[in-house]
Write the structure tokens for this entry.
Amino acid sequence: MPGIEKVSIVISKGSLEGIYPGLIMANGARAEGIEANLFFTFFGLDAIHRKRHEHIKLATVGNPALHMATWLGGFPGISSVMTHYIESKMDGIDIPSIPEFIEMIADTGTGLYACKATVDLFGMSKDDFVDQVQDIITVGEFYEIAAGGQIIFT
Amino acid sequence: MSTITLAGKDIARTDDGFFEDPSQWTEDMVPDLAKSEGIEQLADRHWVVIRFMRSEYLTKGAGPSVRALGKSSGVPIKELYQLFPKGPAKQAAKIAGIPKPIGCI
């Protein structure tokens, strides 16, 4: 059976736990010699936003797997504290920060694209995004780029 | 498992092409191993990476992932992918006769 040769991964969420899995999967695909593309849509655009991608937070509300009281998750500062905690754990096992990860993924030859509908909706432009973003594309163009491969939505 | 003949020796490899016994590897096998990975012309920079993989394996017991390779081999990630388009750590490990590097990043 032939292996997977190409993946296109959609990142649609702007939380730390919503962004990292897609980045890790794209990077891991390239390491296996698999062609990879990343398509950022909706709040996932924060991952490639020049000013925001250094400040991605862990979602502490509506996340039962954190095993902490729901009311505590919404307490001011909790999200920052939890984000800092998980980032220090990640650093310990050499997982790069999101800005560094985006840079590294671009170096692996992964294509990085922003979703046009969301860019229009949020009133953004190409200048809002890091240089590694190749283009702002429509969903139709995304399917053209993804043609012949697997599509993963996160 | 499969067996190939390199430099007059029978070499047992895993199904995905990694040496079963890294001690069987010698440098004169490199050009043939590289060719089977689609690398026809070995440049000095390929050798930097292959020798680095080998020495990391011999000192640490495992080859580095792409990220670790980019950080410590002196060859940046972009260039690593130009040298080894089908996955730098994986291809260089096969050519260096060491097991497949493990790690997700």
Notes: The interface with chain A takes residues 65-68, 70, 76-78, 81, 85-91, 104-105 of chain B (CB under 8 Å). Chain B has a mean pLDDT of 95.
